Amino acid sequence: MGKSVKDVMTSNPCSIDADKPVAYAAEMMKKEDVGIAPIVEGDRLVGTLTDRDIVVRVVADGRDPQQVKVRDVASRDLVTVDPQQGLDEALRLMARHQVRRLPVVEEDGRLVGVVAQADVAEEAKPKKVGALVEEISKN
């Protein structure tokens, strides 16, 4: 694969300000039909929030989603990719960390996109995609 991440990523993804309430994030994720959202302070990526994070860290604990801030429940252990990196590197990162989406950030931490397994699959060879899906799906 000769293409880079920037060639296939979704540019300007919907992101959520870290100070917004979780209820706002859930509504935005529903509206956009996404299961993960980048969390930002300004234009800098500071975390990610998944629908699972909302269920496990808010709902299951009986916390009020109107009161809990996104920053308090977002995942901060981030795996990111640079827009200049090749798709092979994005595949390796997805497989190694068992994730289906990677935030794309510039060197200064500015969020510029998201690359998904589906984006890479459209450009990759079927054998490589099959290996990626198998690796990501391992427990």
What's this model, at a glance?
The chain has 139 residues and is α+β, with helices and mostly antiparallel strands.
Describe the structure.
With 139 residues, the chain is of the alpha+beta class. Helices cover 42% and strands 20% of the residues. It contains seven helices and six strands. Strands 1-6-5 form a three-stranded antiparallel β-sheet. A three-stranded mixed β-sheet has the order 2-3-4. Helix 5 runs parallel beside helix 7 (126-137).
Element-by-element helix/strand order: HEEHEEHHHEEHH
Q: How many individual β-strands?
A: 6
Task: Report mean pLDDT, rounded to a whole number.
Answer: 89
> How much β-strand is present in the residues?
15-25%
Shape verdict: globular
**Classification by helices and strands:** alpha+beta
Major sheet attributes: 3 strands, antiparallel
Any descriptors?
alpha+beta, globular, three-stranded antiparallel beta sheet, 7 helices, 139 residues, 6 strands
Write the layout of secondary structure elements.
Layout: H1 5-8, E1 10-11, E2 16-17, H2 22-32, E3 36-41, E4 44-50, H3 51-59, H4 70-73, H5 87-97, E5 101-105, E6 111-116, H6 117-123, H7 126-137
Parallel strand pairs: 2-3
Antiparallel strand pairs: 1-6, 3-4, 5-6
